[in-house]
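2024-03-11 09:14:02 INFO receiving multi-entity request
2024-03-11 09:14:02 INFO entity count = two
2024-03-11 09:14:03 INFO echoing inputs for audit
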Amino acid sequence: MSFVEYSELIQEGDVVIIFLGHDSMMPIKVESGAQTQTRYGAIRHSTDLIGRRFGSKVTCSKGGWVYVLHPTPELWTVNLPHRTQIPYTTDIANITLMLDLKPGSIVCESGTGSGSLSHAILRTIAPNGHLHTVEFHAQRAEKATEEFRDHKVGHLVTVRNQDVCKEGFGVLGVADAVFLDIPSPWEAIIHAKKAFKRRGGRLCSFSPCIEQVQRTCEALLDHGFEEICTLEVLQRVHDVRSVTLPLPDFGPEGGTDKTKIASDPLPEEVPPSTNPSYSSVTCRTATPPREMAGHTGYLTFATKPRG
Amino acid sequence: MADSLVDVECRISEGDYVVLKRGDVYKSVQVQTKKKIIFEKQWIFLDAAIGELYGSTFEVDAGGKLGLRKPKNTEDDSTEAKEAGQDNRHIVDDGKSQKLTRDDIESLKGQGMKGQEIIQQLINNSTTFRDKTEFAQEKYIKKKKKKYESKITVLKPTSRILAMMYHGREPGKVCHLRYDTLAQMLTLGNIHAGSKIIVFETCAGLVLGSVMERMGGHGSVIQMYPGGGPVRAGMESFGFPSHFHDTLNEFPLCKVNALLSGTLNVDEKDRDSGKSEEQPAAPSSGGSESQSMEVSTDPAEAKKIEERERLREQRAQEKKVRMEEKRKRLAAAAALLEGRNADGLVIASRFHPCPVLLGLLRFVAPSRPFVVYCQYREPLIECYTKLREQGGAINLKLTDSWLRHYQVLPNRTHPVLLMSGGGGYLLSGITVSADAATSGAPRKTGEPAAKRIKLDD
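2024-03-11 09:21:47 INFO inference complete, emitting structure
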């Protein structure tokens, strides 16, 4: 198992995702002899996981079952241990496309945070690209380094523990793309500019507040960036379900009943009970959830022209 | 600028696929000398771009020839106004503020005046420009620039650029797939180098090309196609190096059932092409043989017949080679599919997604993502329902995305007035083993409810 290459069978040391049911998952590291408790009972790594095929159904000790999944950056994003706020898949997908990332790209990123975006970048730039990621929080940087190693992508990434606004990315003239997710991106634009290859490249800055966007765009313009574009993207989920809609009762048809209705209230109550099959219609539809993420952050993209 | 550090791939060469950009409008073309191209109602010859760097901006002259524009700092944005009004209380829309007529402007253009100079003329001849606010002046200049300046930038194609181009110019050709939706597909599908991906699309080849770009020439792509042959124009526009094409395979949808049931015989003569290609060749060669034996009296005539015969043979031979090649490709694609161990499935078509998805999902290994695009929501609801009944897939999600652009200017930041109403719908999920080892309640795979039912019995 690696985050940049699929394998068929589960091996010792792999990180796997246990799928417990609708929207309920957990990541575990496979170690022979170890056990993991779930709400359906224990999973014994040696017998239940090692040597089994990814995607298999595993029966837990209490008789319930779960699926064991191969990790992907997208599954990792919803399962990773949070050390910071993280960008989610909808934003990540757009960042990846709009930064023109592909195998072989050299990318600079700051901050590393919990590594949500880093994993997605690494997946896309493998096998011959490189990620230079800068994190000013020492412990986070250390933890990220460890995770990259565990996920067998360590060879594709260099983690630096420094302040990008003061010390830059630690590399000059190598990047095809730069990504910023820091409180004051405008202070890092000058370093981003220096990190780019001579032929230029694409930049993205992620900020939750419009004031940050404002200052960042001014800095980008001042430093000669072009095609500056700010956008916001949200994912809307549609929950598929069957809904039953009752049909209204207009009473018997035709004009002959006028007298009856006027004289006798009883017939009004009869139709729904005598003819229940016509009283409602069931249809298959999809509804929005009651609440959704209405704002994640603004994505500002720009092109660094040839210097 | 042109120094030794600049690598060859940064220069525009003849035969390259490039994207022309003017304002927010893109057009994908192949660079050919002396080839007339129409872009934004303008004739253009790209000859002068050959040898220049990608990302260069050119000015188009009256004859359609390109002239290289100097990089930024020399740009004389001198259409500066010295005076500005406070607000628009004195601006009256009487249609008389511009003194230049349509004909005047045309004649200025005819004299070979540059866009910049025309705009200055328009400003000089506007009676209201000086009363406009600074912001309104800026907006006025921007609008006129868009109309009269003919700057064109030549770009290297990427899936971002091509997706924006198709969505902006010809959304019908890509089933109205918006670029941010394409972005979701590539990410949700976990498309990356070294994997084996099945693609079924009727989006002109844009989705196929985007998948191939993300694979970087590593791994393999199997394009499933309806009808006579795969459509790849959009993929060609990426201008991939030739080794990318070696990773691409194609397989006809009409043979999927045969492959699934194990009755596909790749050595068997292709029935459709067999009719059209074999038949004319076979009987005519037989016929001419007998003919040449009979009518050998006139030597000149005989020679002619012989020549014709030789050409026919040659053509038949070529056809045979082509068909052999096609059969080999079919066999290769079949071999890739047969293992039923593809690493991903990407569907974006105008066909009903349900049969496509259920059919092609059988070629995908367990624990692999799949993603289906449809312009409409209801067919995907049906897919969702069927997959739930059938099992073999979990983490099913039906989504669409909402995209909004912003104008960011000092003290004037707000959402752009127009936004796209919809970018299509996606159904994504992950395959799982359908083995009946624990066949408690396979009908409701992955649902907590299903587990309870299973524990009960």
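2024-03-11 09:21:48 INFO post-check: The mean pLDDT of chain A is 92.
2024-03-11 09:21:48 INFO post-check: The longest strand of chain A covers residues 226-237.
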